[in-house]
Amino acid sequence: MGPRTHLDADPSQRSRDRLYRITGVPRILNLATDQHTLALTPDGQVWAWGVNGDAQLGDGTTTDHLDPRRIAGLGAASAVAAGQRGSLAIVNGEVWTWAQITGGPLVTRPTRLMGLTNVVAISAGNQHYLAVTADGRVWS
User: Fold this and answer.
1) Which fold has domain 27-139?
2) For an engineered disulfide with 86, which of 58, 61, 93, 99 has Cβ 3.0 to 4.6 Å away?
3) In degrees to the nearest 10, what's the CA dihedral of 79, 82, 85, 91?
4) CB–CB of 87/99 below 8 Å?
5) What is the three-class DSSP state of 8?
6) Helix or strand holding residue 53 (H, E)
7) Predicted TM-score of the model (pTM)
């Protein structure tokens, strides 16, 4: 194995002013990012890393992680969205959320949002979250 470069740096040695290759995640289909990153793989796995003070990584903790970790407890996701204080995924047309989504209790693992089905798109912003259903309605 050849010499390591800053692209392969140990996560604890990374700085913000350099570009790093992210390793440990299978092929990525789509990314969503804010202070944390969600990666969606072609088979629907969701991986997360970054700031986790509000449980945005969905790993059951509030510990930040610089290395990607697969989020357990989700089925095959078709989309992801990352907001400042929370995360969303679409699984079988339903929205799954984790973190500080509605100002209610902190949710550290993915939980299905009840009453919203046939969702085809999601988006997350600073502290707001949106979903679009197949009939074109927008939910907030």
Assistant:
1) Methylamine Dehydrogenase; Chain H (2.130.10)
2) 99
3) 10
4) yes
5) helix
6) none
7) 0.84
Q: Residue 115 is encoded by which pair of tokens?
A: 């009453």
| DSSP tag of 59 | S
Give strand pairing partners of 97: 88, 111
> pLDDT tens track of the chain, all 140 residues?
333 333 344 555 555 567 677 778 888 888 898 889 999 999 999 999 999 999 999 999 999 998 899 999 999 999 999 999 899 999 999 999 999 876 678 899 999 999 999 999 999 988 789 999 999 999 99
Which one-letter amino acid corresponds to residue 101?
I
Spatial separation of the C-alpha atoms in residues 32 and 23, rounded to whole Å: 17
What span, in angstroms and rounded, lies between the C-alpha atoms of 2 and 130? 46
Q: Which amino acid, 40?
A: L
